[in-house]
């Protein structure tokens, strides 16, 4: 009798995974290291491009007032001023509006409205900056010039902010465009923050007889105030670095003007408008120097915001 | 105060509506078949379109996605599956820093790295766009991977599967919807960016080209250039291009959002 030889049991051991266990780990680790190296390379390369200007002007570049391609003198003072001024005006308008939106979406709005309104606010962030800039030049600028700025000049002209002649380009349209860009960023972070406030704290406050607004003011906002600061810093960082829309509407003027009607320029805006048409190596390097300043500012803002967020997380992790 | 918070939200939604309405009102009349199929007309003529920019934007975002998607997903896998917590923290910090770098600075970086010496090219622009997309994809993918229920992961390991196999066979397929969403959102962002292409792929001829070794036009760039022109025709072209870009970006964003809700719900149901 010939017994049928049983088929050998399938060997699981032999079938090695096509992709060794170490393979994916190494590949994934390499990608992560690659990201770290990329940031390092970016900082190095931009600094290298700026080097001729850094060695020529040194730190005095920061307070140099000239920007003259003919005489080869470059300084960033007015651009730093324009960047700080436009971003601060923008964040001053955007922060209260965005935090209020965050509150509305997390605490105040009827439940059925929260998701759709939240989605619409986030869509605002999806509008490409060049489209906002186009709208800024053709619609917003003339509107501000004809309707808003004359009113401001007539009624508030005694404040130096609103001195001078209305113009269709300048700091005000730039600040408004920046405001539109940063509202959704700050609003969505604020909403997350307010949602993270423990429900028993809110209900406790309401149970003690607070109105909803008193609960928000006395419980919710103090709970998340550090996070709100981080959100505002992130919004500010976005405004500092915006190049395209700003260069479209700000008018490219260099002065120490405090009036929001006057043309101004920012670090990022100047890079966008002049890098391509730069006429000398020193000008190119000086524009890269502006990029270094911008990079330092945005890295500081970003790390500061992240450290704040991390501290909050840790505190909350301990509390619960 | 509650009224003020409501007004703030109405204000934000109104801004969205006003901008979209302006773009539709000014852009729609200039849309035509020619607008999509022809390159810009020579100076003075008014029959051109933005076909070269549409082709350029499609090619460059596709190449940028091909570069950023694998890298971003791998970084996310590393952070969720392999990295010690401290290392993962650091990687996250650096990714957030990268996401915070102004896009114009990325443009300068790639200009120095790839354009100096060898000239502008769609490849250089794609690398710049990929740098912008990388942290977006990595962060969003990491969030989805972290949502995958630990029970699935443990079941895979308990059956004797290696860690890598568990990731490839179980975790990635579970999270695939979320990964696609992250890519869509990043594509929407990259397609609308002007600053990274401004110095890397901007000196372009008015012909439709698919040669990625040379500079290619892009929709944002054509809007940027036309928006600064005093000619009414150019401004109209800018509005029409803005309408095309806005429609593309908003449709992608909304699709991404809906998909992400669906994926999250699916994964949550597994728990």
How would you describe this protein?
The complex is a heterodimer of chains A (320) and B (271). Chain A is built from 10 helices and 2 strands. Chain A is mostly helical and 320 residues long. A two-stranded antiparallel sheet of chain A has the order 1-2. In chain A, helix 4 packs across helix 5 and helix 5 packs across helix 7. Chain A is globular. With 271 residues, chain B is mainly alpha-helical. The two termini of chain B are 40 Å apart. The model of chain B has no long low-confidence stretch (mean pLDDT 90). The chains are: A mainly alpha (320), B mainly alpha (271). The interface between A and B is large, with 89 and 87 residues.
Summarize the structure.
The complex is a heterodimer of chains A (320) and B (271). By secondary structure, chain A is mainly alpha-helical.
Summarize the helix and strand pattern of chain B as letters.
Answer: HHHHHHHHHHH
Contiguous helical run count of chain B? 11
Profile the largest sheet of chain B. none
Q: What is the total tally of β strands of chain A?
A: 2
Brief descriptors of the model:
heterodimer, A: 320 residues, mainly alpha, two-stranded antiparallel ribbon, 10 helices, 1% strand, globular, B: 271 residues, 11 helices, 77% helix
Q: What is the strand and helix layout of this fold?
A:
The complex is a heterodimer of chains A (about 325) and B (about 270).
Chain A: H1 21-57, E1 67-68, E2 73-74, H2 77-108, H3 111-126, H4 129-156, H5 171-196, H6 199-207, H7 212-241, H8 244-249, H9 267-274, H10 281-319
Antiparallel strand pairs in A: 1-2
Helix pairs in contact in A: 1-10, 2-5, 2-7, 3-5, 4-5, 5-7, 6-7, 7-10, 9-10
Chain B: H1 2-27, H2 33-37, H3 51-82, H4 85-100, H5 103-115, H6 122-147, H7 150-158, H8 163-191, H9 195-198, H10 219-227, H11 232-270
Helix pairs in contact in B: 1-11, 3-4, 3-6, 3-8, 3-10, 4-6, 5-6, 6-8, 7-8, 8-11, 10-11
